[in-house]
Design brief:
The protein has about 400 residues and is α/β, with parallel strands linked by helices. It has a domain of about 280 residues. About 35% of the residues lie in helices and about 15% in strands. Helix 2 packs across helix 3 and helix 6 crosses helix 8. It is globular, with a radius of gyration of 23 Å.
Length: about 400
């Protein structure tokens, strides 16, 4: 990568002159294809990935027969990241068969934004068509539960009491739907709901808005009219965040042709008795929910967008100011982020893509993989054979996966 090349992190390209360069000679030294057999090629050093090397997962302990939390090998982690990126790309293009080809993708800030970086990196590897437009919305389940009037139990940020008042459950899609629909029965609540939807819709009106008249905004065509929309969330426990986002977009832009959802990371829950507890989220997901760093965008900050509009009162800036309650503040300069974890994560993703192209990473193939992925794996020397032939072939995909996951 040339110094000064623009790195697109969703806020528009920007020149990051200190973006670390990938060293192809160092990567080549990791694995010389001409000398190593296929079963030894899919191995990279964890020291090259200090962020991804921390990724955890829930795995079966063969000695106890129980599922336990553990730190994954770097080879399994990178294989999962590549495989799940391919799965998402197949959903976007429609190749997975889960839905139509998508015209627009919304990534939910903050933690789904890094997913968009991997999609950008791997798009040409796994897709044969142009990448659709993408935007970002900051829709948080807790915020929208409270907005709708779903009262979360103090100190939990996720539970609500059942009707009997003595038991509780994780706030879910049904809780939101119940109050969201009931808002139409009260004129003040109906108007509050209408305003929130108009603020979201304004962000998708081409060229912005001339005024903040709610009814006029709701009548104005949007760039999403007649399009298939995919909303991407990074993790899911109850599914409520993605459900809320889909419900809001459908209501704000009823002219959409379809609205689908995609969860990137599925290895984040573990059953404990009758309850589901959080397992592991993607490694860039912070332990401290108040820590905005590491995902290339800051928290929601209406003051930022108001200042931008006052300095430059264009229709587009007016729309962003009006809809700023679902917009994160862009990280315009990496120096504004203490320790620059977003920059370092982006570096590791870039290195991951380069090493995949060299055949050093064995991806976890999704159920419905892109055709280009299978073609590439065959070029890497991976063989897909009938079950009865797996034990006789060290290059068979299941055997390579077992070796990959056991190698640190």
């Amino acid at each position: 990568m040339d110094k000064g090349e623009k790195i697109n992190t969703g806020n528009g390209g920007r020149n990051w002159s200190d973006f670390p360069e990938f060293n192809p000679n160092a990567a080549e030294a990791l694995c010389e294809e001409t000398e190593k057999p296929v079963e030894e090629r899919f191995c990279v050093p964890a020291k090259e990935y200090p962020i991804f090397a921390r990724q955890g997962g829930v795995r079966l302990n063969p000695n106890t027969g129980k599922f336990e939390k553990k730190t994954l090998s770097i080879n399994e982690t990178l294989g999962l990241m590549v495989g799940r990126t391919a799965e998402l790309i197949a959903d976007i293009t429609g190749e997975s068969g889960n839905g139509p080809a998508m015209d627009h993708v919304i990534y939910l800030d903050k933690s789904a934004r890094p997913v968009s970086w991997m999609v950008e990196d791997f798009w040409d590897d796994f897709a044969n068509k142009k990448q659709p437009e993408q935007t970002f919305l900051a829709i948080d389940r807790r915020v929208w539960f409270e907005w709708a009037g779903v009262r979360l139990i103090s100190g939990t940020d996720e539970y609500v009491r059942d009707n009997n008042g003595t038991t509780m459950h994780v706030a879910c899609a049904e809780d939101f739907d119940r109050v969201f629909e009931a808002m139409d029965k009260d004129e003040n609540e109906r108007q509050r709901k209408r305003e929130a939807l108009a603020r979201i819709r304004a962000l998708y009106i081409e060229g912005g808005i001339m005024n903040e008249d709610i009814e006029e905004i709701m009548r104005t065509p949007t760039i999403l009219d007649g399009q298939n929309l995919l909303i991407v969330d990074e993790v899911s426990r109850s599914g409520s965040t993605l459900h809320i986002a889909k419900r809001l977009l459908k209501a704000a832009i009823p002219e959409l042709k379809s609205v689908e959802g995609h969860v990137f990371w599925s290895d984040n829950t573990i059953k404990v008795g009758d309850d589901s507890q959080m397992g592991f989220a993607p490694v860039w997901y912070p332990e401290d929910k108040m820590d905005w760093r590491g995902r290339g965008v800051k928290d929601i900050n209406p003051i930022y967008y108001k200042t931008k509009y006052l300095d430059d009162p264009t229709p587009l800036n007016r729309a962003k100011n009006f809809g700023s309650f679902v917009l994160g503040e862009p990280l315009e300069n990496p120096d504004d982020e203490p320790e620059q974890p977003s920059l370092h994560l982006r570096e590791e993703m870039y290195r991951m893509h380069e090493e995949y192209k060299k055949g050093h990473i064995l991806p976890t193939v999704p159920v419905h993989p892109p055709e280009k992925m299978i073609e590439q794996l065959c070029d890497f020397g991976v063989e897909f054979v009938p079950v009865e032939q797996v034990g006789k072939n060290p290059r068979a995909y299941p055997n390579l996966i077992k070796k990959r996951d056991a190698t640190y």
